[in-house]
Design goal:
This protein has one domain (about 25-95): Alpha-Beta Plaits (2-Layer Sandwich). The relative contact order is 0.22. By secondary structure, it is of the alpha+beta class. The protein has a four-stranded antiparallel sheet with strand order 2-3-1-4, with helices on one face. It has helices at about 15-20, 40-50, 80-90, and strands at about 25-35, 55-60, 65-75, 90-95. The chain is built from three helices and four strands.
């Protein structure tokens, strides 16, 4: 068997980071139903609390739909930790 000489792959730094993230458990997006949110302060409270969790990359809160969408690294945190944090700051997470 003959080995072919391969050319080195050259990527931009953002592409390298993306490839590394994809190979390490990957990014997950989860939508959580949350009760008790009624104002911008609620949005800020949840956003601040969740972004403090290691592995959470993004948080989007929708007051009208009463949902929180969270982007996180599965190898660094999990849905239970995120849900517990929401409860800890005074809101109710709906199961299901």
């Amino acid at each position: 068997m003959r080995w072919k000489k391969k050319k080195p792959l050259i990527f931009g730094m953002d592409r390298v980071i993306w490839v590394l993230l994809q190979g390490r458990g990957g990014m997950k997006n989860q939508v959580i139903n949350v009760n008790g949110m009624s104002c911008d302060h609620c949005v800020q409270t949840i956003t601040k609390a969740l972004t403090e969790i290691n592995g959470v990359a993004g948080v989007q809160v929708d007051l009208v739909k009463k949902i929180v969408a969270v982007d996180f690294e599965e190898n660094q945190t999990d849905l239970k930790t995120i849900s517990n944090k929401i409860t800890e700051v005074g809101f109710e997470v709906e199961e299901g």
